[in-house]
Amino acid sequence: LWGCMAQMFFLHFLGGSEMTLLIVMAVDRYVAICRPLHYTAIMNRRVLLGSVLLSWAVGFVHTMSQMVFMATLPFCGPNVVDNIFCDLPLVIKLACTETYVLELLVIADSGLLSFICFVLLLVSYTVILVTVRRQSSGGLSKALSTLSAHITVVTLFFGPCIFIYAWPFRSFSVDKFLSVFYSVITPLLNPVIYTLRNQEMKSAMSRLRTQHISSRQI
Question: Which of 16, 131, 169, 190 is surrounded by the fewest CB atoms within 10 Å?
C-alpha cells in the first residue's frame, strides 16, 4: 500500500512541477521573441531560480492536496490495480467507503488543472505569434520554428493527462496505452524533440555523420 502511495506522490509531484515549468518556458519564449533586447534583464538569475522553486512548490502542493485524503482511505480488498502503475482514480475505486467528494477533488485538481494550463499555454503561443506578425511579417516563420518544439512537447504531455483526468472514473480501452504514453514515451521524446531543434546539436550531428561516412570510405 505505501509503495503504491509513494508512486502516486512522485507521479503527481513531478507532473505538477512539469506543468509549472512548461508555463515558465512559455513566458521565457515570450520574452525572448517579443522583448529580445530586455531578455537578460527580465529573465535574470533571481527570476530563473524563483521559477524553479515555484515549480517544485506547486508540484508539492498539488500532490499533497490529494494524498492527504488518500492516506486515510480504508481498503478492504481485492487490492488490485488494473494498470501499469498506481494512480489516484484507480486506487480510489478500491476504497470501501463513499469517495464522491474525493473523486470531485481529483477531477478539479488534476483534470481541470491540466486543462486550464493547456489553454493558458495555447493563449500564450497565440499572443506571441500575433505580436510577432504585427511587428514583422518575416519574423512569423522564425517564431513558429522556435515554438514548434515547445508546442509539440506541451501537446504530448497535456493531451493524455486531460483525457485521463477529465473522465478519471470511467474505464476506456485506451487508458493503459495513454498511461504508457505520457509516463514513458513522452519523457523519451522530450530530449529528442528539443535536441533536434538545437542548431549546435544539428551541426554536431552533421559533423559526426560526415566523419562516419569519411571513415567508411577509407
Answer: 169
Beta bridge partners of 75: 95
Residue matched to cell numbers 504585427 = 134
Q: Can you give the CATH number for the domain in which 74 is found?
A: 1.20.1070.10
Distance in angstroms (rounded) separating the CA atoms of residues 215 and 212: 5
> Residue 103 class from Cβ within 10 Å (0-12 exposed, 13-18 middle, 19+ buried)?
middle
pTM of the model: 0.74
Q: How many Cα atoms occupy the beta-carbon half-sphere of 9 within 13 Å?
A: 13
Q: Convert the pLDDT of each residue in 188-212 to its tens digit.
A: 777 777 776 667 777 887 888 787 7
Are the CB atoms for 106 and 85 separated by under 8 Å?
A: no
Query: Three-class SS of residue 75?
Result: strand
State how many domains the chain has.
Answer: 1
Domain that holds residue 117: 2-217
In the chain, the N- to C-terminal Cα span, in Å, equals: 60
